[in-house]
């Protein structure tokens, strides 16, 4: 752990969740951007991809961690790896296809080649030029020291000392499960049906923060709510989704590791709300899943997901729509977004078709809902970049103190809209920038956590 | 082709070009509802996502496919009607204030004509598009690509029954696709 008091003090001044104020600098300055890349993205667990994208030995999917390209690959023995996508010789991007199947990654520059488990195999003219000098075993592709597969998703960290992924996830797992589990409650079983990649001129944290529980921004989606684009819109229903959670208690939950979620805690007795109205087969399918899930999960079935963000930059939509979105930093005021759309792999074709159509009209740059988010994030970034603007912090004082710990669910739970999850997020963020040890970063060190409150 | 057929071909090509230019103009003039009237009820509006694939796999894998998975657009007239309705609410902030847009259409070719050039009921026209969007103050995007339109004779005009737009981008370099193509 490195401490440098003046820098720590500066960070504390700029990031002051206790008073509900956060400097605009962290959203626009290249210094903060560089610090994030060095101190946060080199340590935190990041989402890399999904096993359904690399089903067979030799399958690869080129992904990204922070600002760097990585190769997610299933080796010929079936083991999953994540490699930095940069040749050990002169750094050429080894793989420039987005996905595929191979037995060898051949570098286009001087033709060094790497096996699917990362080993340097071929070096042209090795005997003549390198014999006795180059120890090939030392020049494998750079591999992440930490990798974890969870219910189909693949996560990685560049920090060999990072706690294991499940510890990092903590109690947020209950919420993530609602995204990754089958709609009928069977564990896992999702697949990626498609991917969006786009760049937006906004700081990545605007997007992450939006998903970790900014329900307050609902008015910016008024246009879709007025016209109705949900799965029952053709049957004349307004709104951008079905109202699946009638009578449920909305909860905004945050966790010491920095995760934040907006979910719903249903009453003890709750019924299926008719959905997908113009598609009787789909409605029937979800009704069946709903009952099955209640039967399988019992009391746990009361938890249903809206949106959330796994610290630092993996957001999700839980049901309508359903997917994971990674907000990769792409310069201080640019983000490259990658959204992975999910369905149950064994859902009937008709269900998948209705879902994918809804996903496309809801999400991403062509999505009628998310377009308005992008507009907000762009102009919030732009209008915060000025010299004068940077002198004035953002306000994060919504519902200060209005939460209970571990009641009725694990975590800090608010039953009213709150910026508590954001305050908590930036508190954790500040700890990364200060180079804190892992106990502090995941909230094991309670004195720090309490002091911040 | 006989001389008469050639003449009919040129006349038809001119008619199709005029239709495409008129249609582009409706969008640029923000006559969105009139534009919707040019769409057939069974319209397919499709813009695939383009991927970087190994040589030889382009045909199979470069573009996402209509009817499966996720594309930029894979939708019908109802959804496009919703897009128009949304813009007209005045609170669709991604298009409020409205973008300034110019659709350039060029390289128009008749790819299929049926049943005959003299009595065309359906035409597939290929073209290139260059769509320039300018938003608020400093935001601008240029969308360039190839388009294939299936047009259906409708009285003395045409209806668009299928529009396929191949945008020459991989990672989308615009924050939004909030305009109509
Ligand atoms: S950079 Fe890859 S072989 Fe030289
Ligand atoms: Fe939103």
Structure commentary:
Chain B: Belongs to the bacterial ring-hydroxylating dioxygenase beta subunit family. Chain B: Keywords: Dioxygenase, Oxidoreductase. The complex is a heterodimer of chains A (453) and B (181). Chain A has 453 residues and is an alpha+beta fold. Chain A has 2 domains: 48-147, Rieske [2Fe-2S] iron-sulphur domain (Rieske Iron-sulfur Protein), CATH 2.102.10.10; 185-452, Naphthalene 1,2-dioxygenase Alpha Subunit, Chain A, domain 1 (Alpha-Beta Complex), CATH 3.90.380. Chain A has helices at 5-14, 25-28, 30-40, 126-129, 165-169, 173-180, 204-211, 222-227, 280-297, 349-362, 370-382, 387-390, 420-433, 438-441, 446-451, and strands at residues 15-16, 21-22, 46-50, 59-65, 68-74, 80-84, 99-101, 104-106, 113-115, 120-122, 146-150, 153-157, 190-200, 249-254, 260-265, 303-310, 314-317, 323-329, 335-344, 394-395, 404-405, 412-414. Chain A has a 9-stranded antiparallel sheet with strand order 13-19-18-17-16-15-14-22-21, with helices on both faces. In chain A, strands 6-5-4-7 form a 4-stranded antiparallel sheet, with no helix packed on it. The longest helix of chain A has 18 residues, at 280-297. The two termini of chain A are 23 Å apart. Chain B has one domain (3-167): Nuclear Transport Factor 2, Chain: A. In chain B, strands 2-1-6-5-4-3 form a 6-stranded mixed sheet, covered by helices on one side. In chain B, a hairpin with a 4-residue loop joins strand 3 (100-115) and strand 4. Chain A binds chain B through residues 96-100, 193-202, 220, 222-224, 226-229, 233-234, 336, 341, 353, 356-357, 359-361, 365-366, 368, 371-372, 374-376, 378-379, and chain B through 47, 49, 51-54, 57, 64, 67-75, 78-79, 82-83, 85-86, 89, 91-95, 136, 139, 170-178. FE2/S2 (inorganic) cluster is lined by residues 87, 89-90, 92, 107, 109-112 of chain A.
């Amino acid at each position: 752990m490195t401490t440098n008091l003046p820098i720590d003090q500066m960070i504390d001044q700029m990031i002051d969740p206790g008073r509900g104020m956060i400097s605009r600098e962290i959203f626009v300055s290249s210094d903060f951007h560089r610090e994030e890349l060095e101190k946060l993205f080199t340590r935190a667990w990041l989402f890399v991809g999904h096993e359904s994208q690399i089903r067979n030995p030799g399958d690869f999917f080129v992904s990204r961690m922070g600002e760097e390209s990585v190769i997610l690959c299933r080796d010929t023995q079936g083991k999953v790896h994540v490699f930095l996508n940069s040749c050990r010789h002169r750094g050429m991007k080894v793989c420039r296809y987005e996905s595929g199947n191979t037995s060898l990654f051949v570098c286009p520059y001087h033709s060094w080649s790497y096996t699917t488990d990362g080993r340097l195999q071929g070096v042209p003219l090795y005997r003549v030029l390198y014999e006795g000098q180059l120890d090939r075993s030392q020049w494998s592709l750079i591999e992440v020291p930490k990798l974890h597969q969870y219910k189909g998703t693949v996560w990685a960290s560049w920090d060999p000392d990072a706690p294991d992924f499940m510890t990092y996830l903590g109690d947020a797992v209950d919420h993530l499960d609602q995204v990754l589990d089958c709609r009928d409650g069977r564990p896992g079983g999702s697949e990626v049906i498609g991917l969006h990649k786009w760049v937006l001129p906004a700081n990545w944290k605007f997007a992450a923060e939006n998903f970790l529980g900014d329900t307050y921004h609902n008015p910016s989606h008024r246009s879709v709510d007025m016209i109705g684009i949900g799965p029952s819109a053709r049957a004349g229903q307004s709104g951008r989704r079905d109202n699946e959670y009638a009578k449920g208690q909305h909860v905004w939950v945050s966790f010491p590791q920095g995760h934040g979620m907006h979910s719903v805690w249903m009453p003890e007795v709750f019924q299926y709300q008719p959905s997908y109205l113009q598609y009787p087969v789909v409605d029937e399918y979800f009704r069946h899943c709903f009952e099955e899930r209640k039967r399988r999960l019992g009391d746990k079935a009361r938890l249903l997901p809206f949106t959330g963000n796994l610290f630092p930059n993996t957001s999700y939509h839980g049901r309508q729509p359903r997917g994971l979105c990674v907000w990769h930093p792409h310069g201080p005021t640019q983000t490259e977004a990658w959204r992975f759309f999910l369905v149950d792999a064994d859902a009937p074709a008709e269900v998948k078709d209705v879902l994918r159509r809804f996903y496309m009209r809801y999400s991403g740059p062509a999505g009628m809902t998310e377009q308005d988010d992008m507009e907000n994030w762009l102009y919030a970034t732009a209008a915060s970049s000025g010299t004068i603007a940077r002198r004035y912090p953002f306000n994060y004082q919504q519902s200060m103190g209005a939460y209970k710990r571990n009641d009725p669910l694990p975590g800090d739970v608010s039953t009213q809209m709150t910026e508590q999850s954001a305050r908590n997020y930036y508190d954790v963020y500040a700890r990364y920038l200060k180079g804190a040890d892992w106990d502090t970063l995941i909230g094991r060190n309670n004195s720090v956590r309490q002091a911040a409150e | 082709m006989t001389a008469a057929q050639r003449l009919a071909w040129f006349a038809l090509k001119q008619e199709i070009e005029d239709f495409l230019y008129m249609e582009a103009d409706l969008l640029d003039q923000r006559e969105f509802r009139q534009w919707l009237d040019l769409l057939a009820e069974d319209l397919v509006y499709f813009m695939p996502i383009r991927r970087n694939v190994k040589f030889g796999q382009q045909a199979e894998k470069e573009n996402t496919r209509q009817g499966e998975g996720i594309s930029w657009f894979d939708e019908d007239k109802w959804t496009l009607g919703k897009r128009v309705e949304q813009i007209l609410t005045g609170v669709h902030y991604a298009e409020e204030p409205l973008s300034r847009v110019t659709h350039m259409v060029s390289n128009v070719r008749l790819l299929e004509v049926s049943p005959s050039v003299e009595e065309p009921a359906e035409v597939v026209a290929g073209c290139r598009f260059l769509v320039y969007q300018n938003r608020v103050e400093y935001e601008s995007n240029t969308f360039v690509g190839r388009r294939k339109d299936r047009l259906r004779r409708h009285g003395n005009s045409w209806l668009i029954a299928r529009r396929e737009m191949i945008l020459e981008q991989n990672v989308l370099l615009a924050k939004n696709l909030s305009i109509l193509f």
